[in-house]
Amino acid sequence: MRFKVILFLCFFWIFGFAQTYQQIKNRFDNYLNYRGGLTSQVQIESNKIIFYNVQKQIVFVLLKEDWQKMAALLKTLPEDSLEKIFLNEIILKNHKTSIANSTKKSLTELKIMIDPGHIAGNLNMAHTEQKFLHFTKQNHPALKQDSVDIAEGVLTFQTASVLKNMLREKGITVSLTRKENSTSFGCTYEEWIKNFKKKTLDSLLVVKKITVQKHKQLISENSSKFFVDFFKDYELQQRARVINAFKPDMTVIIHYNVDEKNTDWKKPSDKNFCMTFIPGCIIADNLKTTQGQINLLRLLLTDDLDASERISGLVVNQLSRQLNIPVANKADATYLSEHGIATPTNGVYSRNLALCRMVQTPLVYGECLYQDCENECYNLLQNTETAYGIKTNKRVVLAAQSFYNAIMEFYTK
Q1: In whole angstroms, what is the distance from residue 353 CA to residue 239 CA?
Q2: Which of 69, 72, 274, 313 could form a disulfide with 345 if both were Cys (CB 3.0 to 4.6 A apart)?
Q3: d(CA 290, CA 241)
Q4: pLDDT grade for 17, boundaries at 50, 70 and 90
Q5: Beta sheet of 42-44, edge-to-edge order
Q6: Which CATH entry fits the domain spanning 108-412: 2.60.40.10, 3.40.1160.10, 3.40.630.40, 3.40.50.300?
Q7: Could you give the CA distance from residue 251 to residue 243 in angstroms, rounded to a whole number?
Q8: Which stretch of DSSP H or E encloses residue 115?
Q9: How buried is 118 (Cβ within 10 angstroms: 0-12 exposed, 13-18 middle, 19+ buried)?
Q10: How many Å apart are CA 128 and CA 122, to the nearest integer?
Q11: Is the confidence at residue 188, as pLDDT, over 80?
Q12: Among 145, 375, 363, which Cα is nearest to 259's?
């Protein structure tokens, strides 16, 4: 039986990491342990945290006296070092670090990463990633114009770009995970397919991350099917790496939603809500890797989850106020009632989303509005606004203003 214990973590200067047993237990029970799925693998006791494997063997123990020290490491060390600690391959002695609560920083000391959801900068790419709306009079005779075409990736990038400029005016250092019509790899999807698809799949085959059969299947797929089967999730991992390498004080993830019951999204809907997501609803499959276990430990030991709920509550209130749309209740979407946990903060839900798990900072994952709402879809096409040189529509500008207002309130009040 392999038994890994963190020991000898000494001489830390730590601020903002004084976690109590009750705080950690509350995070586990009410945000992270989705429907009890982690109960057999994670045990939270008043004096230690224990991780088990599927055979119920102890694989990791963290004693209470090391909780604060480990929390500091989880916020400062790179992923490879953290994995070595977790696997007990190295013991850190006399390791010094200084952690300051980011809410105490001045605006000019802050670093914020903005992730514009999806990739598309045009309708062709939006069709490839299946994040588009296409309404026609043929499908919906009551449509007010011949057709409505919306690419979510365009809206998110415009929103992120306006928000970036707003924040930079306050002296905040801001970066985006991607450029316009680009992936987080720094190139378009078409360029990645041409230059990196085979190299990537070959490398994954060599290290046995995929089977020969899977390699053969993926190599033969066209770009649309390959995007769904492989690239979408692979690129999300790269986004997390880009974010974590930047070491921001906060991460802002921007999305625009649709009515899940508006089947095939060929006609407008009468529904419109805003909502925000934070990490949570972790399941046993998420703990199969060392990185997954480290992600859970960070959410247990640091204030990231608490800060995420606070900024997310501020954002959803601003979205509702600025855009004049209601905040989603749990019954308003199946993924909220069946796959989410409603937090005590109205409109903020814990969900098991990849970026929410992997990003090592407080975050807000904002769903601004429903693109397919009958009122919204026409407004989103009216590019009558120019903000910081960006040609867009009033709804995008108001969405960016919502994030900006919330961030200012979070850091200045």
Answers
A1: 13
A2: 313
A3: 16
A4: low
A5: 42-44, 48-52, 58-63
A6: 3.40.630.40
A7: 8
A8: strand 111-116
A9: buried
A10: 10
A11: yes
A12: 375
Q: Which residues contact 266 (CB under 8 A, 6 or more apart)?
A: 134, 135, 136, 139, 140
HSE at residue 135, side-chain half, CA atoms within 13 A, is 22
- Which is nearest to 399 in space by CA: 246, 282, 214, 255? 255
Angstrom distance (rounded) from CA 406 to CA 191: 37
∠ at Cα 5 (4, 10), nearest 5°?
A: 145
Q: Locate 382 and state its tokens.
A: 């009216």
Mean pLDDT of the chain: 90
Mean pLDDT of 57-66: 89
Name the β-bridge partners of 51: 42, 60
For residue 109, give both structure tokens: 């000391």
* DSSP one-letter string for 269-325: BS---BEEEES--B-GGGGSSHHHHHHHHHHHHSSHHHHHHHHHHHHHHHHHHHHT-
And the tokens for 284? 């046993």
Kindly list the domain boundaries of the chain, sorted by start residue. Answer: 13-98, 108-412
Q: Angle CA(152)–CA(156)–CA(159) in degrees, nearest 5?
A: 140
Q: Is the pTM of this model over 0.90?
A: yes
- For the chain, give percent helix, strand, coil, nearest 5: 45, 20, 35
Residue 100, pLDDT score: 45
For residues 340 and 353, is the Cβ–Cβ distance under 8 A?
A: no
Closest CA to 117 of 232, 36, 21, 226: 232
